TrEMBL record:
Organism of derivation: Vasconcelosia minhoensis LEGE 07310
Transmembrane feature ranges: 38-62, 74-98
Upper classification of the organism: Bacteria, Bacillati, Cyanobacteriota, Cyanophyceae, Nodosilineales
The UniProt record lists the keyword Transmembrane helix: yes
UniProt KW Ribonucleoprotein keyword: no
Domain of life: Bacteria
Protein name: DUF4112 domain-containing protein
Pfam families from the UniProt entry: DUF4112 (PF13430)
Amino acid sequence: MDTSARLRNLNRIRRLSRLMDTAFRIPGIGLRIGLDPIIGLVPGLGDLIATAVSAYILFLAARFRLPGKVFGRMVFNVGLEFVIGAIPLLGDIFDAFFKSNVRNLALLEAHLQAAEPDLEKASLSTSTAMAAGD
């Protein structure tokens, strides 16, 4: 995968992770939640859908050929959120605070920063140019 494809993949992971875990701010208390705890309110099916999106994020992350320890931690985060998230109401509260997708994004970015600093630099310059409107 060339650098531009890797950047597109990384940005897709960033967007999905933030959409699922931190897309909305709750007024008054400032807590950020995403679609994950909201979707999880649908009994049974909601947690499966949220886990499917998390699995897709893992699939995208696997393209970076992560070390087993990093990828295993990411799988553990998603599995933990799935198991505890399946508990009615308590699981939805857990989903709102645990944020497995954002945790996994942080693991991926930390690995990339150490293993592929050029990709991280390209990512920062791309996001700066996008923010400036270029």
